[in-house]
Amino acid sequence: MAKRCAICGKEPQYGHHVSHAKNRVNRRYGPGDRGRTPRSRARLHPLPAHLRRLSDSSFLSFGVIAFLLTLGIQYGLFQRLLQRPLLTHDVAQMRPAVGRWLKVVLLWQVVVVVASAGYVGVLASQHPRGIAWIAPAIAAVFGTAIPLQVAVVAILRASRGS
Q1: How far apart are CA 131 and CA 70, in angstroms?
Q2: Which of 69, 74, 116, 132 lies at a C-alpha separation of 20 to 30 Å from 108?
Q3: pLDDT in tens, 19-29
Q4: Closest residue by Cα to residue 73 from 115, 34, 33
Q5: How much is the pTM?
Q6: What Å distances lie between residue 33 and 7, 37, 47, 64, CA to CA?
Q7: Where in the chain are the domains?
Q8: Cβ neighbours of 102 (radius 10 Å)
Q9: Cα 106–111–117 angle (5° rounding)?
Q10: Alpha helices in 7-134 (DSSP H)
Q11: CA distance 37 to 60
Q12: Are 137 and 65 a contacting pair, CB within 8 Å?
């Protein structure tokens, strides 16, 4: 085992293994030893907790970033593909524009939901404490849902005007 961990800088510590009869035997505790058997000590120790886990505020911050990113992309798709044809109130222009927009938005929704499910699947297997770790996935899904409502209201308004 290495004398010093290259990641966290932990060094081996020395002490005694004390038996029930109070016999003391010299013992070396390497970084990452958690009462394992001597055969399993040869494995590398896992990353320390401060490098392995993010705080709840980090997950919430990532959730805000995911929400704003997906909101911006979804609203950008609305602006680029749908807004101009809806302003014309011409059914001949609106119908194909709505069809194109629906295809692109459904593809984007599938990408976001699959990415969110993959994220939840990976982090759920590690059993992080608390529930803040799910914030980015929920925020990404909500970030795509809110502009959909704005677009549906715009489509309904445009269809009434024609």
Answers
A1: 21
A2: 132
A3: 999 999 998 87
A4: 115
A5: 0.63
A6: 15, 9, 12, 38
A7: 13-47, 53-161
A8: 14
A9: 120
A10: 49-52, 56-78, 84-88, 91-125
A11: 39
A12: no
